[in-house]
Every structure is written in structure tokens, then in C-alpha cells.
């Protein structure tokens, strides 16, 4: 077994690998960029070496530097995690030439599966179902149309070297096919330096279901069942689960056996994932093979009780697979939510900055797990991807897993940046999601106009208001117990309150039964609310019982407002004694300033370009500026015709949310 390994990655996957290596008694070496100097993976590793500036190509993608660190530290093997160099054939080959073990498949297998056209031909030879299509590069739009007609619309036009949704179009007729072919080829040429394009049948009501496979150096292969990854936004996975709510045992076995056949065909060693598209009739077709550990591997670990990173390390060290296919079992249901640094209410724009508060729910072995590479007080950088944590739960069945995920999301505190937790909470409650009626178009179909707070209405808003009334009364009772009050002038809180929010005022009467138990009445509604005795006023996460039902909410104060969050919904309200509420209604309302003549930055990021000049007339839809954040460029366009009065920010500036970029006349 190895004595020391290097992790050629960052963030949560680097921390994840370090955790298993430590369990196995293996020393670890972390590499980091200057932007990651204080990152969690740097703190957790036994050794850490800086390998360059923040841009990935100068650090995490710099093969020479990583190999040099291996030699410098005596690392015998490299775990690449996912992303960066994890599927780079040249990196695996160079490590092998240097006598350093790549904890992953051999470079020949990476090469064979890395090209979509070549991998599809290999799959066909191995007896794996492939989507009807034309697998050779297509030279012209006319040829693309002829092929599409032969296959039958709809068809999918894909770049051979594509990935992450780039170089992919769906065409339903000849015109869309011509346009899609040209744009797909141009996009592929610019993104990958490879403009080869192929066409295949578009599967209706498609699901994205993948099979986890393992192989060793002794010709042993197993599949560790499937993962359902259909819930995607812009071709990026959002929620993953195992097993799939759609797959029956016969289909599972057929998919698993075909995945193993493909792995055997390339003499695959290590962890790999064979991705399939599955139609509404349970027909399944090979998409691609990912020759690395997947982001969503924890759900497989949860239902099998296995450590996939440990398997990878042992296979790389020359050991045999620990179990045979007949020894593998599915236990319960697992689900993973990717917690991303993005603002779901602003079109999922990236959100960077300091994590003022980062308090994940407490881990429970076998039930709840949090994989992360950040910590409270740390920085979310604009240079890397937006994922800051993975929240994984396990239940006896799918419904229990969903309920545990909902409870865990309610308890997950992130402040200082925005996160997609409200969106994840909305997904957990969505009827179609709960029923398991998923396709890769689920999010686009259910949220066609984006995501707004109105899409997360609470099932019982009155209950939330009554909880706030109880909290306010509890606070006032505490104030009444303060020492030093004059005899005969002691403060006695009134039990009558008004909870005032955007919907109006709700009258509530609160009765204290004990320090932690209250009865709240509003009209015909009566609630008994029991507070967790460990909770103290000022703590964000509050656990209560409403009757016999437990409930987790997040509670904060913003000035005189309470902000209560539950199941993705947010209630902002004032809670005032009834006699004060009558006077409050007479107070004047402050009008917010008019910012309509300013272009504001919708996200933190780097101002790459100002596309206009002072005094220039602009038309609606015209490009005004470009902001870069988390490896993505975001173009800001004019919402209406106007004239630029003043340019406030300069290219190269680091912008905060709502910072002024330019002013219009």
C-alpha cells in the first residue's frame, strides 16, 4: 500500500480524498493555488505546496508543477479527483512514465473513452445499446439534413469533443438542423479546438441514468447499481439519487451488464461511470463513459455501505476488487443536493465573497453527510466552480430520503453569499419530483421563466406568523425578568400582538405555559408550540414542535424585522404589541432611491469589458459590459434605449453586487 499520495485537486473532493487516505493510514500532499492559500484542503493535508497563481491553467492544470511536487515530497501516487486533470490522457501517461501511480484508469482507457465518436464505436462492438445515429464526422449542413431525415426527427447534434452542454443542439426540422449544425460546429471549434460533429436520435422524455462500474488489474469487474441524475439545469446536475425511481430490477441488471461489458472492452481499472439516456419505454442507450470518480459518488456509497475512494486506492496499489457482483446489495435510498454559490432569484448568477456564516446540519452516520471544502470565514473565489458543498441523506425509502433532505436543507445556514438552498427546497416539495416523474427537461419545463420567491409558497403561512408571535413573547418575557427594575414599575408584556408582513396584519394572543411551551391563538386557530430547550434567542437554527410534529426553521433579525425561513419560503415580518401596532400604521413610508438610470452589477465578479463609451446612444438588447465570475462570462445588455452619461467602473475592477458600472442620462 502507498505511504503517501498527492491530491491534484481542490475543494470538497480534495477534502474527501484526504479523509479516506487518513482512515487508511496514508499521508497526503495537497497542492494549491495562491487563491487557495487558506483553503480547507490545505489545512487538512499532511503537507501542502503552492503551485502557482489563481488561474487553473497556471496551477491545477500545470502538469509539470504537479509532477515536480510528487518528486519533491516523495508522493508515490496521485488522486486527481474530478475535473481539472482527472480525465487527461497525457497526465496519466506522464505520471506512469515518471514511475508515479495514477489513481484512476490507465491512459489508454481514458483515451478510448474520451472521444465521443470513438467511444460510441467501441460501445457498439462491446454489445452496448447505442442511440441510432451517424457516428462519423459530418462535413456540411446539407449532409446533416440528409442524415437527420434518415434517422428521423427529432435529432441531437453533438460535438465529438463536447462536454458540460457545450456543442449540443436539438433539431426538430430541416431548418433547425442546418442552424444547429453550423452553430454547434463553430462553438465546438472555439471551445475545444475540434469542430467534428455527429448526429443521433433524440430520445423522448429522456432520463439521465448512470451505472457505477469498477475494474481491477486481474480482469474482475462489477457494477454498483445506478444513479438517477435527470434533475439538471443547463446540462448541469442539481439533484442525484440512488437507486432510480424508474428502473426495475431487470432493466438495472441489463444496464449493469452492458456497462461492465464496456469496461471489460477497454480493460478498465478503477472507478468509472457509464452514462445512459433512458426513454419513457425503459429503452436505454449509451451516452459516454466518465473515466473518473463522479461528483455524485456519495449516493452510491450510501446505498452500498462502501468507500469508493478506498476502492480506487486499493486497485491502484495492485489489489483485487474487494467484492464480487453477487455480494453487492442495495440498502435503502440516498439523495444528494449540490449546494452552489449562486443566487437562484437572480437567474442563478454566481455569488462570491466571504462566508460570514457556514453551518451545515450535523452529520449523522448512515443518515446525513456533508462533503465540503469550505469553512465559516473562508472565501468563495471567483476563479473556480460554484459548488461549495454536497448534502447527502439516506433513508429506508425514497420518501424518507426526501423528508430528511428537506429537514437538512432547513438546517443548513449560509450567509455572506447567496446559495441555491431555496431552489433545492422547492424541488423537494415539487409534486412531480416527489412522484419521481423526472426527465432531463424537468427544471426547464417546471420553471420556464426562472425561479422567484413566489414559486415557494409556504403550505401554512399562518403557522409561521404564529411562531413569530411566540418568539416575540418569549423575548419580551426574558426582558421582563431583567434585574434592577423599580418596585411598582416592573415591565409586564402584553399577550396581544400584531404580526405585520407583506400580506397585512395578523392578530395573535400568546399564553406562556412554561419557558419552552406556548399556546398561540389567532381567530379559530390554536397552536401549541414547544421550543427546543437548548435554543437561545439569537441562534439562527430553531427547532420547535407544533403539536407532535417536529419542525426546523431559520430565524434572524434585520433591524426591527424578523426573517423566518422554512422549506425554501421566507417570511419577513414585524411583530408588535397590539397597542404599538396601531401607532405604527401611522408612520410614513420611506421611498427607496430610483436606480433605474444606473447599470448595476448583478453579481460579484471581474469587469472584463465595457462595450460602450460615454455619450453613446444604445438600443435595447445591446451589449453594455461583460463580467466574469466562476469560470463564466456574463454579458449585461441594455433593457431599453438610452444614452450613456458616465462610465463609473473600469475594466479589471472587482465588482460587488449592485455596484454601479455606468450611468444613463
Automatic annotation (TrEMBL):
Pfam families: Biotin_carb_C (PF02785), Biotin_carb_N (PF00289), Biotin_lipoyl (PF00364), CPSase_L_D2 (PF02786), PCC_BT (PF18140). Keywords: ATP-binding, Biotin, Ligase, Lipid degradation, Lipid metabolism, Magnesium, Manganese, Metal-binding, Nucleotide-binding. InterPro entries: Acetyl_CoA_COase_biotin_COase, ATP-grasp, BC-like_N, Biotin_BS, Biotin_carboxylase_complex, Biotin_carboxylation_dom, Biotin_COase_C, Biotin_lipoyl. It comes from the Bacteria. Residues 586-665 form the Lipoyl-binding domain. Its cofactor is biotin. Residues 120-317 form the ATP-grasp domain. It is an enzyme of class 6 (ligase). The keyword Ligase applies. It catalyses: propanoyl-CoA + hydrogencarbonate + ATP = (S)-methylmalonyl-CoA + ADP + phosphate + H(+). Its EC number is 6.4.1.3. Residues 1-448 form the Biotin carboxylation domain. One of its GO terms (molecular function) is biotin carboxylase activity. Pathway: Metabolic intermediate metabolism; propanoyl-CoA degradation; succinyl-CoA from propanoyl-CoA: step 1/3. The keyword Transferase does not apply. PANTHER family: CARBOXYLASE:PYRUVATE/ACETYL-COA/PROPIONYL-COA CARBOXYLASE (PTHR18866), METHYLCROTONOYL-COA CARBOXYLASE SUBUNIT ALPHA, MITOCHONDRIAL-RELATED (PTHR18866:SF33). This is Biotin carboxylase. The gene is accC.
